[in-house]
């Protein structure tokens, strides 16, 4: 998973980074150079977000460095629309709100969830950071809108948003969708931190404490760095093992098949499968059904290479019908009579006996032909 566990410290560090981003952005834009500030802010933001994307799993410094730079650059984006382009805060707040809604809609249609614990793919991570950027920019515009346009002042605006953030907390306690309550609270943390930072950094004549943006930037930077060091050393920000999105890239979640590992009733590659009678194609035999395996002889079927009944091996004589009357070795397995024993015709090799054995002109031994054969001529 690419995001930390959501615990009380998560919201504390989130508030500190929003305050730091507001103070640093105001100092660079108002006290240094607004054009140079935007360029430097974008470069540092690109470096931090690239570092985060190149990290395969959640790590404290890459993730929270990206959040800190989003806080700085998101504030600059909101200030540029008001200071450089001269657009009122209502327009900038509405614009970033529309961008955030579009991001959520596309994210949900594409992935089916907005849960941050499902950030395990690159596309979901892109949606997540787009949402984070737009929440920071919109939160900055909302804070300035309440403080200046609605004339509540920075401290009063901070208290208003602090009261509003209790709504999703109570709703979550009552069983409302945790994903919805998380994102509502996440959006509201931005104007809270930004309003407190503006209160301490703005002059007194515009409802500020007058400490200056530079001093507030240094203090908030020290607090943010201290929180990063504490989390990295203690590991309290690491995702919980029971999280469904805990496995990093390339590792399937519980219950999902891994490549090369067969599932139940699914043999691995190269192993025979049981026959499917619907296909009409023979498969290897299923030993559970009492069927012979490949290469095993079935009843009444000799194995490969063995002679069949009635089919003598090479070199053995067979009965040749063209040589009638010539003896051949009979096949006793078939129960056949010798090939020369034809009951319709007499056997010429046997002695001729009985009536009808004297044929016409057949002068056998001791036989007489048809008629009187004595010679009556006178000498």
Distance between the termini: 142 Å
Task: Indicate the low-confidence ranges by residue numbers.
Answer: 242-269, 279-287, 289-300, 351-370
Strands, count: 0
- Biggest β-sheet description: none
Order of secondary-structure elements: HHHHHHHHH
Number of helices: 9
Based on secondary structure, the structural category is mainly alpha
Shape: globular
**What is the residue-averaged pLDDT?**
76
Supply Rg. Answer: 50 Å
DSSP strand (E) fraction?
under 5%
Provide the helix percentage: 40-55%
Describe the model.
The chain is mainly alpha-helical and 379 residues long. The longest helix is centred in the middle third of the chain and has 28 residues. The chain is 49% helix and 0% strand. The chain has a domain of 227 residues. It is globular and about 135 Å long.
């Amino acid at each position: 998973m690419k995001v930390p566990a959501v615990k009380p410290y998560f919201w504390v560090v989130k508030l500190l980074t929003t305050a730091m981003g507001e103070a640093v952005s105001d100092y660079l834009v108002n006290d240094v150079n607004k054009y140079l500030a935007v360029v430097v802010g974008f470069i540092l933001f690109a470096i931090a977000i690239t570092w985060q994307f190149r990290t395969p799993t959640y790590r404290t410094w890459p993730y929270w460095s990206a959040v800190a730079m989003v806080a700085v650059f998101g504030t600059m984006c909101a200030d540029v629309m008001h200071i450089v382009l001269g657009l009122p805060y209502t327009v900038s707040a509405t614009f970033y709100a529309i961008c955030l809604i579009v991001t959520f809609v596309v994210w949900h249609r594409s992935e089916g969830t907005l849960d941050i614990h499902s950030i395990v793919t690159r596309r979901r991570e892109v949606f997540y950071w787009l949402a984070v950027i737009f929440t920071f920019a919109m939160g900055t515009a909302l804070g300035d809108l309440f403080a200046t346009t609605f004339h509540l002042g920075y401290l009063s605006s901070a208290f208003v948003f602090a009261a509003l953030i209790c709504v999703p907390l109570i709703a979550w306690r009552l069983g409302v969708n945790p994903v919805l309550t998380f994102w509502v609270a996440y959006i509201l943390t931005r104007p809270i931190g930004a309003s407190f930072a503006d209160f301490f950094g703005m002059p007194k004549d515009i409802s500020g404490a007058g400490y200056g943006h530079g001093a507030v930037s240094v203090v908030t930077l020290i607090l943010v760095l201290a929180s990063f060091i504490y989390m990295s050393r203690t590991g309290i920000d690491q995702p919980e093992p029971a999280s469904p999105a805990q496995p990093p890239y390339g590792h399937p979640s519980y219950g999902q098949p891994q490549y090369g590992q067969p599932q139940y009733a699914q043999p691995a590659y190269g192993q025979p499968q049981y026959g499917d009678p619907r296909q009409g194609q023979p498969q290897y035999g299923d030993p559970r059904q009492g069927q012979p395996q490949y290469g095993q002889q079935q009843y009444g079927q000799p194995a490969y290479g063995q002679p069949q009944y009635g089919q003598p091996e090479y070199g053995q004589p067979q009965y040749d019908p063209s040589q009638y009357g010539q003896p051949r070795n009979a096949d006793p397995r078939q129960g056949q009579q010798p090939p020369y024993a034809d009951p319709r015709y007499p056997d010429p090799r046997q002695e001729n006996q009985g009536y009808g054995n004297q044929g016409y002109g057949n002068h056998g031994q001791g036989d007489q032909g048809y008629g009187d054969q004595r010679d009556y001529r006178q000498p």
